[in-house]
Amino acid sequence: MRQLGYVENQIEEIDFYPLHEPFAYVEIIREKESLDKRYVLIEMQLTEQEARLLKFMKETLSGFAFDTMELEKKGENQYLAEKVDQIIDEYMLNNDAQSKKKIMYYLEKEFLGLGKLEVLMKDANIEDISCDGSGVSIFLYHRRFGSLKSNVQFVDEDELSAFVVKLAQKCGKHISISEPMLDATMPDGSRIQMTLSAEVTTKGSTFTIRKFSEDPFSPPDLVEFNLKLWILNARVDSADHELYEKMRKAGVEHIVFGVESGDQDILSYYNKNITLDQIRKAIRLSHEMGFFTTAHFILGAPIETPRHIQHTIAFIRSLPFDNILIRELGYAAHSLLWQEAVDHGKINPNEDLVVAGRERDLGHFTTRQLQCYCNQVYYAFTLNPRYLIRQARYALEHKNPRFLRLGARILFKP
Length: 414
Known about the structure:
Elements: E1 11-20, E2 24-31, E3 37-43, H1 48-62, H2 68-74, H3 76-90, H4 97-112, H5 118-122, E4 126-131, E5 137-142, E6 146-153, H6 157-170, E7 181-185, E8 191-195, E9 206-210, H7 219-225, E10 229-234, H8 241-249, E11 252-260, H9 264-269, H10 276-288, E12 292-299, H11 306-317, E13 323-328, E14 330-332, H12 336-343, E15 353-355, H13 367-382, H14 385-397, H15 402-411
Parallel strand pairs: 3-6, 10-11, 11-12, 12-13
Antiparallel strand pairs: 1-2, 2-3, 4-5, 4-9, 5-6, 7-8, 8-9, 14-15
């Protein structure tokens, strides 16, 4: 720990476990004075001779012409090991078995894995990995210890930008200065958000990884736990009777769908890749399966007009929603809409959230008009007789008079 800059009598170890024996371990420490916890990655160090040999291997491998068919046939690990043996033989390098294993560990991280993140991604306790720029420590969210500052960082912007480009390529995507923001799915199923260079953030390239659990809860697990669950931001294009049956058995009672609009033009503008028919199918199936069904709607898309809003009202009234959530469109920092508005000078780069409105040339309506339209949509929903009948039935079946009292106040309000 002294080599990593820590003074032994100023810290205490609270956990220690292996990640890739015998090459990488994690020590969770607590600083005695501040009580701050730290995530310390400890890797087997190379001798000076091994470090020189590793550098030579990287440079030599980078100049190799790789046979993709052979690589696919043998597997990337075996293929890399054979190339390393070939270099050792051709250049008659002196290398004992232990040194070779250490060098292979670092080569596999660099050429086959995710470099500095490879070992972190193997830690099943890590749920989130966040890098806010070069020269600053990567932060992790640990299942047991919460948010932790790590001893891993990217030295400079060139190293970090090259890593972000590599990440995008591993996800089968492209990121560049002309398209500096990317949301993608990693090969293991983890979700990642990336920005490239200082074109988007003042600190340069950034990324956040939401790891995919290697051992997610299965429906039988959830049934055993006897949980009462909500599903948030459910996709309508995944609606399936068999799936919903499993969800119901697992304890799901409430599904919240991210619908956004009842007009196909607006859905297409948001690039939702869903249709009104898919929404209808999902909402009706959710209702038939007995789930409390909520949908989220947004008003204020730049192309939205009163005609589109009337379509949304009619669409909402035609379906058996138990509740709706509705708000004005907000331009959140670093979203694609926000970046486009910044590029056109409509939003200041220092603003984190801006509500759509004609005052900023961000749509057809003023912010006040959008608020009124949101109220209009909500009242059109709650005063729909079909909705009131459903709520009365729900209240009676669940012996909950709250909905009845609420309905009475709405109907008989002076």
